[in-house]
Amino acid sequence: MATTTVIGEVPPYVSDDEMDASEMEHNGNKKRVKKRQRNWVEKMVFINTEEAEEAMIKEDQRSYHHTNTTAAEKRNFIDVIKSKLVPSRIPTEVKTIIQESFELKLKPKAIIEVLHECGITTPSIHQLNNFLRTIKSTKLDPTSISLGEIEQWCLKSSQSIPESDDAPFFASYQIIYDDDGDINENKFRFFITIKRLLQTASISKKIHADATYKLVWQGFPVLIIGATDLDRHFHLFGMAICSNETTQDFRFIFRALQKGMKKLNLEEIDPDFLIAADADAIRNAFQDVFGEKKMVMCWAHMRRNVVKKIESMVKKSEQEDLVNDVESLQLAQDERIFIKASNLFVKKWSKKEPNFIQYFQNEWLTTHNAWYEGVGHFAPSTNNALEAINNVIKKRKIHFVDV
């Protein structure tokens, strides 16, 4: 008796006129109804069952078979059920963008918007959430670190100074539970450094400080402090993580730097300048710790803020000329020249753009006026070197280990 294996495909739908095998009569008894026969389609013919099953595996399809014996021959029928399409995986380059967005604390919807703006086909929300859960479990552990765990970590790592010049340690830390004297919440602050960095700090006179969300730990920004040399190369002193960005937090950082110097029996740092953005918290803390010092306003931050205001407040035809005049003001080599040039600048533009001049006088000629070159000779006028080191740390994926 010949044996032939025939493969037939089950339709992926059920016809509306197909009846169930049983229905209820009016008296409640079941009545057997003949089911409509499907129309089977012969797709492929195989020599034996093994060959058919192997083909199903290659096609990634599920199947089951039954045998139909007639007087002429014996047939093994393999009914093929097409398996659901497996969704494509998220490409590596897309995962990189998602990971960077996650580190910036963006929500899933915001991440999808970022991908749209980059012209990238977005994964499904289910895929995205699964990948974000994977990131959290590998980077942040299953749950965020607790305040008690931070305290134990800091306590253990600050008990002694490492022998190696390049081994990290805590110069200082603070763990505050339910601080009623400030904001009613738990807080933490810690400053990490190494001997080699503090040795550089001991001979530095120009301090750069900033908080950046380009680098985050447990959702909190990394606070960077360091100095630049005459070639304007940045030299890191250490990194701090604080639960807030207030004057108290930056005061802690500057004092932690001094404590680190004392632990190594180095002379306390006595800087001549602070180069920072227009964050009053940084500037006030610096003054509290180091006294009356020159504070250089980062020209790059100042220019960006001013250009935004010009674009929103000034007529299009006047914008380029106004930006050029602000840039010329920045080149003033001493306070006397800056004051005279500022007066001429105000006189020129007060009638043309009175609203902008009012803003400029209040913000950049009164409150924050240390953004011209003459404020600090041989001192950088921007925080660009510090921001560049942030990118280096981020790209090299440097993180706190074995502290």
TrEMBL record:
It comes from the Eukaryota. GO terms for biological process: regulation of DNA-templated transcription. Residues 207-303 form the MULE transposase domain. Signal peptide: none annotated. Pfam families: MULE. InterPro entries: FHY3/FAR1, MULE_transposase_dom. This is MULE transposase domain-containing protein. It comes from Rotaria magnacalcarata.
